[in-house]
Every structure is written in C-alpha cells, then in structure tokens.
Amino acid sequence: MTKVALRVVVADDQRVVREGLAMLIGLLDGIEVVATAVNGLDAVKQAQLHRPDIVVMDLRMPRLDGAQATARIRSELPQTQVLVLTTYADDDALFPALRAGALGYLTKDASAEEIEHALSALARGETHLAPEVQHRLVTATLDAQEAPILKASTAGLPHGLSPREAEVLALIAAGLSNTDIARQLVLSNATVKTHINHIFAKIGARDRAQAVHYAYDHGVT
C-alpha cells in the first residue's frame, strides 16, 4: 500500500529562504510541498486552497504576521497544524505563536533532520519545540511561580532591560562570545544576536566595549 505523502505549505516573505525551504522540505522522504506563500495573508489563502497537513510558518511577515496567520488557520482548518520556523525565539515571538495554536517551533539554524523530525511529530499531533524554546518555557514557568520575588529583583534594572537582557549583558561584560552565551543560556546564536541588538538600542551602545563599560557602571555584572 502506497504511503500518503505529508502535504506542506511553506510561508516566508524572503524569496531565497522560501524557495530554499521548499526545496529542502520537498526532498524529505514522504513529504510534498503543495504551495508556498509570500506573507501571512497568503499563507491563510494557500492553506484554505490546499488544506495541507502542516504549514511551515515564518513569524515576521507583512500584511499579516505569522502568529495572526496561525490563529486564523487553526481556527478555520483545525486539521492543519503549524510549525513555526523563524529567526526569533524571544518572548515577543514565542508566546503569541504558541497561544495562536502552533504545535512546533524551530529557529532557522535547525538542520534538515530537525525539520523532518518536527514535521513527523506534528503529523502525529505531537508538539516539537527547539531545545532553546523548551528552556524558555521552563524559565517562564519558574518566573511565573516566583513573580513577587522577580518583580522586586528586576524593578531596578536600568533603561528598561529585561531580566534576560541583563543576563546577556552580564555575560558580555564577562568576556563571553555570542557562541559562548548561546551555549550557556541554551539559546540559538540568532536569539543571542537579537537580545544584543535590543540591549545596544536600549543603552545606546555602539559596540561591545561600550556595553561592557555600561554594565560595570550600572552594576549589571
């Protein structure tokens, strides 16, 4: 008996990424890419048209972001699962996507094997989260349980730094590279880079040297 191929739609607003993902996923055994979408609104349209098993969804897209598109697809097509594949694993990206109904969440440094495992898991109705995402969810749960203590301990953070940003800044001040920080905090390199960009913007630093000086001046070490 012939195995029915898993039908997938790939949504990403960057053409090179979209076409590369479609090619990579299409080469996986037992998986067929039935359509691609250029933005969130198009992802909803292609899902309605093709009724795929899974939509591989970027988050930061024009017209309709990935979390909003995910919510619409899961509401209108409950049999279609959503695997988020994005550069970001910060709270602002992660939690809206999971609340919208995404069962899977990977960052774009995932390997073809990881993507294949995620697609297979979603096809079985299971969740599949990148290790750094699982770590963030555990941390968020612990943070929620310790909310009164956390509120007291983070109220004095300068320039609106989040606890995670303060943690990254302290590691920068300790001389760790992006790769070392990613390894220590169980994050992707892309997520660490995003945190650092946010830190630099908040504290007005142009480079790591200024960030280190700021960290020592403000006791974030």
Structural description of this entry:
By secondary structure, this protein is an alpha/beta fold. The protein contains eleven helices and six strands. Helix 1 (15-26) links the parallel strand 1 and strand 2 (31-37). The protein is elongated. Strands 2-1-3-4-5-6 form a six-stranded parallel beta sheet, with helices on both faces. It has helices at residues 15-26, 40-50, 66-76, 91-100, 112-123, 131-145, 147-154, 163-173, 178-185, 189-203, 208-217; strands at 6-11, 31-37, 54-57, 81-86, 104-107, 128-129. It has two domains: 6-131, Rossmann fold (3-Layer(aba) Sandwich); 153-217, Orthogonal Bundle (Arc Repressor Mutant, subunit A), CATH 1.10.10.10. Helices cover 56% and strands 13% of the residues.
Number of DSSP helical runs: 11
Give the full name of the CATH homologous superfamily of the largest domain: Response regulator
Look up the CATH topology of the largest domain: Rossmann fold
Compute the number of strand runs.
6
3D shape: elongated
Strand order of the largest sheet: 2-1-3-4-5-6
Blueprint (SSEs and pairs):
Layout (H helix, E strand, L loop, with lengths): L5 E6 L3 H12 L4 E7 L2 H11 L3 E4 L8 H11 L4 E6 L4 H10 L3 E4 L4 H12 L4 E2 L1 H15 L1 H8 L8 H11 L4 H8 L3 H15 L4 H10 L4
Parallel strand pairs: 1-2, 1-3, 3-4, 4-5, 5-6
Helix pairs in contact: 2-3, 3-4, 8-10, 8-11, 9-10
Which key phrases capture this entry?
221 residues; single chain; alpha/beta; Arc Repressor Mutant, subunit A; six-stranded parallel β-sheet
In short:
By secondary structure, the protein is an alpha/beta fold. The protein has helices spanning 15-26, 40-50, 66-76, 91-100, 112-123, 131-145, 147-154, 163-173, 178-185, 189-203, 208-217, and strands at residues 6-11, 31-37, 54-57, 81-86, 104-107, 128-129.
